[in-house]
Every structure is written in C-alpha cells, then in structure tokens.
Design a protein that fits this description.
The protein is α+β, with helices and mostly antiparallel strands. It contains five helices and four strands, in the order E-H-E-H-E-H-H-E-H. Strand 1, helix 1 and strand 2 form a beta-alpha-beta unit.
Length: 118
C-alpha cells in the first residue's frame, strides 16, 4: 500500500487533485493495488473542499473504470454498510482497521491487465 498526504502544507484544491492523479499514476507504474490518500477529516475550511473534490473525482473514476473502488477511512468498521459492501476488504492492512483514520480514503487501483482491457 502506498500512502500520500494531499492535504498538508496549506495546499489548494487544485494542487491536491493534481497530487491525487500523480499518486494514482505512480501506483500503477509500481503495480500497487491499494493507495491510501490522506485528505483530512473534511470538517471545515480547505480540508472540507479537498475531501469533497477528491470524493467527486473518485466517483467519476469509478464510474469510468479508472479505479476499481474506494472507501473512506471512517467506513472501516465491520458494522458499516459501506464496509460490508466493499469488495476489496482483503487489500486493507489489519493495522489500518485497528487504527482507523477518518481523514483517509483507500483507493483500489486497476491491475495492469485490467487497464489494458479499457
């Protein structure tokens, strides 16, 4: 799993989205299956804008099959419906489940053979 913090250093939403896209490309090159993006809790200010923008983009990426799926760190709970419906639970490390970060988004990437099918 590759982890990237895209909300630190007072970044703009545009810079955070650019970092997201670059992180996805890097993970594909390195054949990573899971990317953890730290977007912040999204409670207010720039963190909220960054989290909203990232989630909107990931929704589009999932719809057009650029990624397999994604789940918020706050949904890593066995009693959460989103977690129960998440097909890629086995990719998330156990320590992430034990120490959930509500400011993280876990992104399951396409495998290289899947990307060739597009």
């Amino acid at each position: 799993m590759f982890t990237r913090d895209i909300h630190s250093h007072q970044e703009t939403t545009e810079a955070a989205v650019y970092d997201l896209n670059q992180s996805i490309l890097l993970c594909r090159r390195q054949k990573e299956k899971l990317l953890c993006v730290i977007v912040g809790y999204g409670s207010k200010g720039k963190t909220h804008k960054i989290q909203s923008a990232v989630l909107e983009i990931l929704k589009e990426y999932k719809a057009c099959h650029k990624i397999k799926d994604y789940i918020l760190g706050s949904h890593l709970d066995i009693f959460c419906v989103e977690y129960q419906n998440f097909k890629y639970k086995d990719l998330i490390p156990k320590q992430e489940m034990q120490h959930r970060n509500p400011g993280a988004v876990y992104i399951c990437l396409l495998y290289t053979s899947d990307a060739a099918d597009e």
